[in-house]
Amino acid sequence: MTAQRTLISAASLRSRRGRVVYFTAFTLTALVFLLVFFFPLYWMITGAVKHPAELALPTPTFVPRSFHPESYVDAWSKLRIAHYFVNTVYYALVGWLLQLTLDVAVAYALSRLRPVLGGLVLGMMLATLMLPAAALLVPAYLTVADVPVLHVNLLNTPWALWLPGVANAFNIYLLKRFFDQIPGDLLDAASIDGAGRLRILYSIVLPLSRPVLGVTSIFAVVAIWKDFLWPLLVLQDPEVQTLSVALSRLSITSQVAINELLAGLVIASLPMIVVFLIFQRSILNGLSAGGFKG
Amino acid sequence: MVGLALPGTAPRISRNQTVRRIPLRRTVSDNLVAYAFMAGGIACFALFSWYPLVRGVLLSFQRVNFVTAPEWVGLGNFTALFADPLFWIAWRNTLLFTGLALLLGYALPLLIAVLLNELRQWSGFFRMAVYLPVMLPPIVTVLLWQYFYDPGNGLFNTVLRGLHLPESAWTQSSSTAMISLVLVSTWSNMGSATLIYLAALQNIPGELYEAAELEGAGVWQRVRHVTIPQLRFAMLVLLLLQIVATMQVFIEPYQLTGTTNPDTITVMVLVFRYAFAVNHDFGLAAAMTVLLFVVLGAFSVAYLRLTRERG
Question: What value of ipTM does the predicted structure carry?
Answer without folding.
Answer: 0.91
